[in-house]
Amino acid sequence: MSIANSLQAPAVIAAGATEPPSGKRLDRVRFSWASIPLLLPAIALLVALFVGPVIYSFYLGFTNLELIGPTSQHYSVTGMTNLTRLIHDSVFHQSLYLTLFFVLGSAVIGSTLVGLLLAVAMQNALGVARAVIGGIVIVCFVMPPIVVALAWYAAATSHGTYTGFSAIRLETSLPPPRWWWSARRTPGTSRAFR
User: Fold this and answer.
1) For 84-111, what is each residue's pLDDT tens digit?
2) For residue 19, what is the enclosing H or E element?
3) Closest Cα to residue 120, out of 128, 108, 112?
4) What string of DSSP letters covers 102-164?
5) pTM of the complete model beyond 0.70
6) Do the beta carbons of residue 62 and residue 75 sit within 8 Å?
7) CA-CA-CA-CA torsion for 77, 78, 83, 85, nearest 10 degrees?
8) Which residue in 19, 47, 112, 137 is a FRET match for 67, CA 20 to 30 A apart?
9) Contact status, residue 163 vs residue 157, Cβ threshold 8 Å
């Protein structure tokens, strides 16, 4: 028996008045335990690719593991030492403030509020204005990923744009531009951007 056939038509009591259908409601979503085996591959992938690395990163936060150096191979659990150092670090507080500022400014105010105001304003706008504003919004939405993709292509491929700059510099014996050296680590410093 299909859902369409099992829905009961409301009985007409009086002119214009209807009686609600009686019996089991068929519009509510019901959970079936028989669907669990079908979900197991997806659950296994979520655990392996998301939950597992998150738990492992929390574990690593309580160790003294580093990428290079003596503790890169022989690390130990340090307990709350990393967290207390993090709480008292002014750089962490500044980065947390900037992250909150960016998330609230970009996601909450920038995307949601401006998008809602544009949608409400465009409801009663002329068709041409809707098309032009909608096109501008779509271009603004699509451009950042394209720019990032082109920048990664230029930086990561062997024949990218930055490689071309490097070849021209070597052919003409020009000194490298200053921005090539601005992010490089100088000897004796612990941070790259000084």
Assistant:
1) 998 999 999 999 999 999 888 887 787 8
2) strand 17-19
3) 112
4) HIIIIIIIIIIIHHHHHHHHHHTS-HHHHHHHHHHHHHHHHHHHHHHHHHHHHHHSTTSHHHH
5) no
6) no
7) -140
8) 47
9) yes
